[in-house]
UniProtKB/TrEMBL annotation:
Residues 28-167 form the DUF4382 domain. One of its GO terms (molecular function) is carboxypeptidase activity. InterPro entries: DUF4382 (IPR025491). The keyword Signal applies. Keywords: Carboxypeptidase, Hydrolase, Protease, Signal. It comes from the Bacteria. This is Carboxypeptidase family protein. Residues 1-22 form the signal peptide. The lineage of its organism: Bacteria, Pseudomonadati, Bacteroidota, Flavobacteriia, Flavobacteriales.
């Protein structure tokens, strides 16, 4: 009799513990996806963002929408000078994610010399733009993924005068890089800002209408930052040496004075 009572108590304890563990919420990570732009020589580049998805296992069956993405058309050329577009801010289960997919709709266009043209994006419309990230998300930690849309390398002029989008996008995890920001004076004309470290490819952006700039996703290191004003300004280029980028921090260069 005592053995049967003991067995019943043990089974009851086991099932209570099992049910309790099954009802526990999984650890989650906060995830933001933001869109920025390294612009090209166009009046506007309008991108129709429909969804943002993630993939945990590299397989085609592993894609899941991050949800709460409001479909919207973004002019990429407005996303400069520290301005970005928040595409999604949500919580997802912690763990590995291998890819992010940016899904575009049909309403994409480009403005060249005041003329609006359709922007063909066949691969994006069919399956979305697949971007490798390979990031292990730790529970309770916030991650920001910055999609740096490099317009000057992404627009193709076809032989018949039409335009196609073949995207070149850098994916940056904010926690794994730094940023360099500041402003230029005078700011009547747009200025190209370019940071170079050793033999690495330059990281480039442009000032906004207030003269502000921000270089996103700058790996830790020491950089030469060059400011190249529009030729019409009559201002001379300027290079600042020894600018440090620190992981997870924004290095503010203050105001850069340009002279003729």
């Amino acid at each position: 009799m005592k053995k049967n009572v003991f067995l019943l108590v043990a089974l009851a304890t086991f099932f209570t513990a099992f049910i309790s563990c099954s009802n526990d919420d999984p650890k989650t990570s906060q995830v933001e996806v933001r869109l920025v732009d390294a612009p090209g020589d166009y009046d506007a580049v309008n991108i129709d963002v429909q969804d943002v998805m993630i993939n945990a296992n590299d397989g085609e069956n592993g894609w899941k929408s991050l949800g709460n993405v409001t479909p919207q058309v973004y002019d990429l050329l407005e996303l400069t000078g520290g301005i970005d577009a928040l595409l999604v801010d949500t919580e997802i289960p912690a763990g590995k994610i291998s890819q992010i997919r940016l899904v575009l709709g049909d309403n994409n266009s480009i403005v060249v010399d005041g003329q609006l043209y359709p922007l063909a994006t066949p691969s994006a419309q069919q399956s979305g733009l697949k971007l490798n990230v390979h990031q292990n998300l730790v529970g309770g930690v916030k991650y920001t993924f910055i999609l740096d849309f490099m317009v000057d390398k992404s627009i193709v002029v076809e032989g018949n005068g039409t335009y196609s989008l073949k995207p070149t996008i850098r994916v940056i995890t904010e926690a794994a890089s730094g940023a360099i920001s500041g402003m230029v004076n005078p700011f009547d004309y747009q200025v190209e800002v370019s940071a170079v470290s050793g033999e690495e490819e330059a990281i480039t952006t442009y000032t906004n209408e207030e003269g502000k700039f921000m270089l996103h996703g700058v790996p830790a290191g020491t950089y030469s930052v060059t400011f190249t004003p529009d030729e019409a300004s009559g201002l001379a280029p300027k290079t600042v040496e020894g600018v440090n980028s620190v992981l997870g921090e924004n290095t503010d260069m203050g105001t850069i004075e340009l002279v003729e």
